[in-house]
Amino acid sequence: MIQTAQYLDGDISRIIEMAWEDRTPFEAIAREYSLNESAVIRLMRLHLQANSFKLWRKRVSGRKTKHLQLRSPEVSRGYCTRQYKHH
């Protein structure tokens, strides 16, 4: 079982955000937070409402950009250019 107590609320929010991002691979989450894909799935199940979790699982299942080994070499960024807007 994943110990979410070891993460601050801000960390959990960031992990969830990274998990939802299409271009952020699970390997990036593992590198930054030491959570493999199955641990991220457990964290998402714990912290999302059931319908949100189901939508997320449907969205990321089989998505090539979520796995470095499956992603096209053309996908070089971990985020969308429109993601971090500066006003």
Q: How many separate helices?
A: 4
Q: Structural class, judged by helices and strands?
A: mainly alpha
In percent terms, what proportion of residues is strand? under 5%
Order of helices and strands: HHHH
Number of domains: 1
Give a quick account of the main beta sheet: strands, pairing sense, barrel closure: none
Overall strand count: 0
Mean pLDDT: 81
| Cα shape | globular
- N-to-C terminal Cα separation, in Å? 41 Å
> What is the radius of gyration computed over CA atoms, rounded to a whole number of angstroms?
13 Å
Helix content: 40-55%
Low-confidence segments: none
Structure description:
The protein is mostly helical and 87 residues long. The protein has one domain (4-66). Helices cover 48% and strands 0% of the residues. The chain is built from four helices and no strands. The protein has helices spanning 9-20, 26-33, 37-47, 50-60. Helix 1 crosses helix 3 (37-47). The protein is globular and about 30 Å long. It starts with 8 loop residues before the first helix and ends in a 27-residue tail after the last helix. The model has no long low-confidence stretch (mean pLDDT 81). This is TIGR03643 family protein. Pfam families: DUF2805.
